[in-house]
Amino acid sequence: KTYLGLDGYQVRSEKSINRYLTIMLVNYTYCKIYSNDSHHFNTGYKAAKKDLEKSKVIYIYEAAANGMSIEEIFKSLKIA
């Protein structure tokens, strides 16, 4: 729960509980797929996080190489 940023998430209704369980199930499944042979959620989570960071760096590099300004890159990443 803490790894996924949901440690402060509160559920007060059936809809919230279902939403929370769905989010957890999807995240758990995604991370288990990334874990390959280790069968550990944490291994998959770290691998998925590392791949996401790599893809961001590649995107920034390619955008800069194609002449995109830093402000345009910030806007496209929604961090401007």
TrEMBL record:
Name of this chain's protein: IS701 family transposase
Source species of the chain: Clostridium senegalense
